[in-house]
């Protein structure tokens, strides 16, 4: 952990604290992700890894490693299902992959439940 987190960008409060990956301001309640040391102030590239640690990229094919339940479907996605042409996104609740699964259509998956094919 950083001993001296940066001051709040909204209210300039110096009494900020770290909570998991966020920095929190106790005065105004603002939460933000601090800029990593050595990262450019522009766009920082995010690295997404699969369940076994392989780096994923747009257009890769992946295989689902565990059975997944799908809301509104009587059957889920079986382990071993191949998904082609993935797209990496900044999704909701940790869903990193936007894709089309045969028989289910468009959906988002977590990188922790797939491995690179």
TrEMBL record:
InterPro entries: YjdM, YjdM_C, YjdM_N. Pfam families: YjdM, Zn_Ribbon_YjdM. Residues 48-117 form the Protein YjdM C-terminal domain. Coiled coil: none annotated. Residues 6-32 form the Protein YjdM N-terminal domain. Belongs to the YjdM family. This is Alkylphosphonate utilization protein. It comes from Streptomyces guryensis.
